[in-house]
Amino acid sequence: AQKITQTQPGMFVQEKEAVTLDCTYDTSDPSYGLFWYKQPSSGEMIFLIYQGSYDQQNATEGRYSLNFQKARKSANLVISASQLGDSAMYFCAMRGFQGAQKLVFGQGTRLTINP
Amino acid sequence: GAVVSQHPSRVICKSGTSVKIECRSLDFQATTMFWYRQFPKKSLMLMATSNEGSKATYEQGVEKDKFLINHASLTLSTLTVTSAHPEDSSFYICSARSRTSGIITNTQYFGPGTRLTVL
User: Could B107 and A35 be called an inter-chain contact, meaning their C-beta atoms sit closer than 8 Å?
Assistant: First the structure.
């Protein structure tokens, strides 16, 4: 079974500061993928970044980077130079590459950027 | 990125009626589609997985006769909520994944969601 844990129900950050959203996971699959999605108030799920378990380097996509520490089973999302438009719910998710390959989500973190 | 559309975006119906929600992958072939349900301020709960041309696989606790899923083509999946009741009111989100090579392979792209309200 797979499990994703996001321990921060809410985060408040000043505009232009960097923010780290925590995510830890547990799985018995030898290979897996980790994802971060952003969900604004409109409800759509926006894909932000992907990290494969065998990728040697941490993934980066513009202002988003994924701090992947495999031994600690953590996949924290780092948003640099936060903007007001970054205010949203953020979900960490993982998918094992064996069996049913279902995408499992964490509880989510509500990020609020203050001006 | 890949685009997934969902229709309708919002629906209000009377108790006892059936509601069909469509999910389309617009610029890729979705060999697998997923249906999620999300309650307010909660995470996404996977309801079922559907592969094109085969029966959907439902998660434990999800009534397959209540939530009918059809994945008739590589670009379309439908979820029908039969005999809807107020407790079925929720935000339903579909997601699609391709088996072809490239970045789409490992990523699930989500539709914009459908907010169902049953009176």
Answer: yes
